[in-house]
Amino acid sequence: EAAIVFDGVRKEYPNGTVAVGDLSLSVREHEMLALVGPSGCGKSTTLRMTNRLVEPSAGRILLRGEDITQGDPVALRRRIGYVIQNVGLFPHRTVAQNVATVPGLLGWDKARTRARVGELLELVGLAPDTYAKRYPHELSGGERQRVGVARALATDPPVLLMDEPFGAVDPAGRRRLQTEFRRIQRELGTTVLFVTHDIDEAVHLGDRIAVFSFGGRLEQLAEPLTVLAH
Ligand code: ADP
Ligand code: ADP
């Protein structure tokens, strides 16, 4: 069964812009699917519809067979992690407090939260003894991005959405972070739908690549080598 199905999805913004037109696409369980295409072709809109930051104008989006528009968006976002460029960490909260955000909202007890925070920081390569008490401004761009990934994984969501996840990281750090992220993704089996304008990133991380053109039209959906040859 597919992890996410877009079934005839369309998004027309109130100003008349058709960001996504009649999109049909399946994301497989446990795959990393890259969305690529020119700026303004509807990639972010597609991601944001998937966690209901944006409501589709038509069509259905299914998460493991369930229509996501039924039910509570907050409950949905517990099952779908979201990582964006420049991550949006809370500047006045420590690394540990940032990672503990969602567990805090869910009322996890202290011991469980502490164990989870420690595990996540280890997972993304930030030793808790060194990093837990630091503030975002005391981190490099790559370290901040790692915290963003840890925070998004806090409740072990089956699906992760990432919008230009490593775009703000310097090129040298970016490749290492991509490779580590790939390892974590395989280990956890998380299904990842991610947007990038960096074709190299799409090829390095993607199991498949969806190429969009303007108006959110799916031009091609294929494995990286096929897309490169095209
Ligand atoms: P991409 O992520 O591929 O750069 P977006 O999904 O951000 O593309 O945008 C697709 C189109 O929708 C663009 O023409 C953009 O200007 C437009 N758009 C995005 N958000 C809004 C909005 N909130 N209101 C109106 N138009 C928008
Ligand atoms: P607070 O005063 O909000 O509890 P802390 O910074 O002490 O602030 O902790 C925030 C969260 O991060 C808590 O859930 C805590 O258990 C966890 N945490 C703090 N330090 C560590 C650490 N070194 N290893 C793992 N988890 C930690």
From TrEMBL:
GO molecular function: any one? ATP binding
On whether Ubl conjugation is a keyword of this UniProt record, the answer is no
The UniProt keyword set, sorted, is: ATP-binding, Nucleotide-binding, Transport
Residue ranges occupied by any ABC transporter domain in the UniProt entry: 4-230
- The answer to keyword Transferase applying to this record is no
Q: Which family does it belong to?
A: Belongs to the ABC transporter superfamily.
Protein name (Swiss-Prot/TrEMBL):
Glycine betaine/carnitine/choline transport ATP-binding protein OpuCA
Gene encoding it?
A: opuCA
The shown chain, on whole-protein numbering, covers 21 to 250 of 348
